Amino acid sequence: MSLTLKRKSIRKFLDSKVSEGEIEKLLMSAMQAPSATNQQPWEFVVVKNRDILAKLSKVSKGAWPLKEAPLGIITLMREDCNRPVMAPQDMAAATQNILLQATELGMGGVWIGVYPREERIKEVREIAEIKEGLIPFSMVALGYPEDTGISSIKYRYDPSRVKVIE
Ligand SMILES: Cc1cc2nc3c(=O)[nH]c(=O)nc-3n(C[C@H](O)[C@H](O)[C@H](O)COP(=O)(O)O)c2cc1C
Predict the structure, then answer these.
(1) What pLDDT is stored for residue 147 in this prediction?
(2) How far is the CA of 109 from the centre of ligand 1 (A)?
(3) Pocket lined around ligand 1, Cβ cut-off 6 Å
C-alpha cells in the first residue's frame, strides 16, 4: 500500500522517544517539498521539552495531541521570500512531507492548524520565542502510534469529484 494511503492522523502515542536520526529524516523530507520558484520559505522548531509541548497543546482546541507526544515540530514561514503569496502552499507541502515520512518510519503524527489564525500565530510565537519575520504555520505532533489505525482507514476516493478532459 502506498504511503499516501497508509497515512492517517495519529493523536495518541507510545512513550518511546524519537531518535535524532529519525528527526533528521523528518526534516530532510520537509525540506525536500516542492515550493514556488524553489523559494523554500521554511524553517522549523523541534520541540522535545515537555513544558513547552504542554503549553503548545493549549493553543487551540485541536492542539491537545501535543501534550503527550514525544515530539513536536513547528513549521515556520519566512515573510521575506520570492513569492510570499505562494508560501502557504509551500508550507503545506512541507507539513505533509513530514507526515508521510513519519508514516514511512512506522511513526505517526497529526497536523495542528496554526496559520492563518492570528491568535494561534501570536501564542505559538510567544511560547516558542519565534522572531519577527517568521510566521508559525503549522505544528505536527509526532511519535510512535499506540495504534497505526491502518485497519480502520476509510478510503475517500470518489470518481464523481473528477472531471476528465480528453
Ligand atoms: C490544515 C489542517 C489543520 C488541521 N488541524 C488539526 C488540529 O488542530 N487538530 C487535529 O487533531 N487534527 C487536525 N488536522 C487533521 C485533520 O483533522 C485530519 O487530517 C482529517 O480529519 C482527516 O483524517 P486523516 O488525516 O486521518 O486522514 C488538521 C489537518 C489540516 C490539513
Answers:
(1) 81
(2) 10
(3) 8-9, 11, 60, 62-63, 65, 110-113
Taking the centre of ligand 1 as the mean of its atom positions, its distance from the CA of residue 165, in whole angstroms, is: 31
Distance CA 141, CA 109 (A): 5
Q: Which of 67, 96, 112, 154 to mutate to test the pocket of ligand 1 (most atoms within 8 A of CB)?
A: 112
pLDDT the model gives residue 138: 98
Question: Which ranges of the chain have pLDDT less than 50?
Answer: none
Those residues with Cβ within 8 angstroms of residue 84's Cβ, 6 or more apart along the chain or in another chain = 41
pLDDT (0 to 100) of residue 150:
73
pLDDT of residue 153: 83
CA proximity to 70, closest of 92, 56, 53:
53
Distance from C-alpha of 63 to C-alpha of 144, rounded to nearest angstrom: 18
Question: pLDDT value at position 112?
Answer: 98
Pocket test for ligand 1, best of 111, 121, 156 (most atoms within 8 A of CB): 111
Fold of 3-161: NADH Oxidase (3.40.109)
**pLDDT score for 1:** 81
Helices first, then strands: H and E counts in the chain: 6, 4
Q: Cell triple for residue 160?
A: 464523481
